[in-house]
Amino acid sequence: MPEIVKGSVSEPIVVQPRIIERERTQENVYKNIPRGWLPPPQVEKRWTAIVIHHSGTETGNAAIFDKWHRENRHWEGVGYDFVIGNGTDSGDGQVEVTFRWRRQIAGAHCGGTPGNWANEDAVGICLVGNFDYTVPTARQMQSLVKLISFLQKRYGISKSRIYGHKNTPGARVTECPGKMFPMSKLKSMLAP
Ligand SMILES: [Zn+2]
Q1: C-alpha 102 – ligand 1 centre gap (Å)
Q2: Contacts of 135 by beta carbon, 8 Å cutoff, 6+ apart
Q3: Can you tell me whether residue 12 is helix, strand or coil?
Q4: DSSP designation for 137
Q5: 110 C-alpha to center of ligand 1: Å?
Q6: How close is the Cα of 107 to the center of ligand 1, in Å?
Q7: DSSP label at 170?
Q8: Which helix (H) or strand (E) is 22 found in, with range?
Q9: Ligand 1 centre and the CA of 165: distance in Å?
């Protein structure tokens, strides 16, 4: 039933059901959000974009990439904010939150951008898999859409500011997130 807003007695103003529906969808973005997705309010940054990566490996999880990035890149730890598993070393579609997100510090996932903007201002999400040869699992895609929708809503990020690594303005030449990553399908599942 359409919500009736107080107007004059003779002509009540009826809120359009379409608008109510959109508001409900936006509310739903916050429903069943894992606690770890909400950053500590004292340190929360204003993120302005999202960069999607693949791991380029068939298996892995946040702890494995953390070790690899420490030992081979000599970084403080895993370069991404979130890692979405494929059922090998973590659950299929499981979203792991890394220390970078918990501390709201710059990432190490998209180097070479002017002023390091993508590491500073964009949320880095890595899906486990090598999408030069396969596509993400259905559960990975579901989790990716849920996570991006949450980030879009919280930071007001439009679809045009969601990039694959290779299409990130100023990024070094790369195939990441893989030749077969379904970017247009993903965009069709997201809010504008
Ligand atoms: Zn990448």
Answers
A1: 21
A2: 180, 181, 182
A3: coil
A4: -
A5: 6
A6: 12
A7: T
A8: helix 17-28
A9: 5
Q: Identify the H or E element spanning 85.
A: strand 82-86
| CA 79 – ligand 1 centroid, Å | 10
Record the pTM: 0.85
The rounded Å distance from CA 99 to ligand 1 centre is: 18
The token pair at 125 is 């999400």
Q: Residue 176, by phi and psi: left (phi above 0), alpha (psi -120 to 50) or beta?
A: beta
Q: Cα(first)–Cα(last) distance of the chain, in Å?
A: 27
Centroid of ligand 1 to alpha carbon of 53 (angstroms): 4
Amino acid at 87: G
pLDDT per position as a tens digit, 122-159: 999 999 999 999 999 999 999 999 999 999 999 999 99
Q: What pLDDT digit, counting tens, does each position of 80-136 carry?
A: 999 999 999 999 999 999 999 999 999 999 999 999 999 999 999 999 999 999 999
* Rounded Cα–Cα distance for residues 134 and 58 (Å): 9
